[in-house]
Design brief:
The protein has one domain (4-87). 21% of the residues lie in helices and 25% in strands. The protein contains two helices and five strands. It has helices at residues 4-16, 30-35, and strands at residues 39-42, 48-55, 63-66, 77-78, 83-87. The relative contact order is 0.22.
C-alpha cells in the first residue's frame, strides 16, 4: 500500500529543499487525506463543515477542506485547532 501523504512530503522536500516546512500540516487530518473519506469538521470558530481533506501547494502547505473530490482549491484551511467530528457514508 502506498502512503500518499509520505510521498507528498518527500516530493515537496525534493522540490523546495531546506525551505520546505510542513509544520502547518495538522496530524489529525493525515488519515483522511490518505483515504479520501468525506468528513465532518468542527472548526475552531464553531462552524461545522463537510468535505474532503486536501493539501495546498507551495513550500509551507496546510490541509484544506474541499467541497467535493473534483474541487480545485478551497477557502477552508484546516489547522490543529479544528477537529474531525464524524465521517459521511458514501451510500445513505
Amino acid at each position: 500500500m502506498t502512503n500518499k501523504y509520505q510521498e507528498y512530503i518527500e516530493r515537496k522536500q525534493k522540490e523546495y529543499g531546506a525551505k520546505f516546512n510542513s509544520c502547518d500540516l495538522a496530524p489529525q487530518f493525515i488519515r483522511y487525506y490518505e483515504n479520501r473519506q468525506r468528513v465532518i469538521v468542527k472548526t475552531h470558530y464553531g462552524e461545522t463543515i463537510r468535505g474532503y481533506v486536501g493539501i495546498t501547494t507551495g513550500w509551507k502547505p496546510c490541509f484544506i477542506l474541499l467541497k467535493n473530490v473534483r474541487s480545485i482549491g478551497s477557502s477552508e484551511t484546516l489547522s490543529d485547532k479544528d477537529e474531525i467530528v464524524g465521517t459521511v457514508n458514501k451510500y445513505r
